[in-house]
Amino acid sequence: MVFIIGGAYQGKTDYAREHFKEDCTVVNQYHLRVREQLRAGLDPMQEAKRMLSSEKGELVIISDEIGCGLVPVDVFEREYREKSGRVNCYFAKEADQVIRVVCGIGSRIK
Amino acid sequence: MLYLITGGSGSGKSEYAENLAVHMHKTQFSCGKLFYVATMCPYRSSGEIDAECEARIKRHRNMRREKGFSTIECYCGIRRIEARDHDVILVECMSNLLANEMYREEGHIRSKGAEEEEEMREAILSPLLDLGRKIGCVIVVTNEVFSEGTKLPEETERYLGMLGAINRGLAKEADCVTEVVCGIPVTVPGVDLQKGSLECGGHW
User: Fold this and answer.
1) pLDDT per position as a tens digit, B128-147
2) Which CATH architecture has domain A2-105?
3) What CATH number did the domain enclosing B162 receive?
4) Which of A90, B39, B121, B128 has the fewest CB atoms within 10 Å, i.e. is most exposed?
5) Does A69 contact B at CB distance below 8 Å?
6) How far apart are CA B15 and CA B36, in angstroms?
7) Domain ranges of chain A
């Protein structure tokens, strides 16, 4: 599995498109899935584990890095930010490659 | 030559960029001039002084006081910057320049259509890329503001989208992209995966 992270608007999707084959399964904007899962009362970590165990082919997961701003005032936003970070750490641990995209440039950090 | 320097708020990117400009001027382009393009305007649209901006400007002026820069104030319209041959210019900073272009009265970016927005981005990008090819060295400071995470208002997202696209456009042509983290410059190396390289440039 390949995990692509970076801030918003950094060119992560373009990077994936340029560097990985079309027959890969691409799961884009994973952070939004975490958000939806939390809204639905699900445990994002369990959902992440379930997804990895069910995907068989080559998988590319793309997610925003969202932990660098101020602590959000809203309790849901705080939980979302925290859980999203934990899930990102889990994906990074399981990934064969981790690419961080800054200003359109991908750096392989794992 | 074109350098792009990014980093979070208070990361030390400005000081790093200033020192880089001075270094380039001293070691490679000493026959040219050393310019500092200042983009922060201390005045509000109403004409009042904005105390917070003024304090920030003062801090930056103090920081670069004895470094030998000639300052050009340029809140909007980067195209009018003239530099030649062996000059070194430092543009501080893109996030401000773009905000001025989008939200100040004299700014040029008004339309919300995708095509017009691209044109307007080009109006900021192309003069800088041209200078980068033509003169000694262009150093652009930008801002890493893309990892907030909370749901932002539509207009803020529009601004971030524009800034992200400008940053990518600069980075694509830049000779070096550096992210300053806690005062430490980290080169953004880029890896060609097709070559199967495992090297991360030794910077991480």
Assistant:
1) 999 999 999 999 999 989 98
2) 3-Layer(aba) Sandwich (3.40)
3) 3.40.50.300
4) A90
5) yes
6) 12
7) 2-105
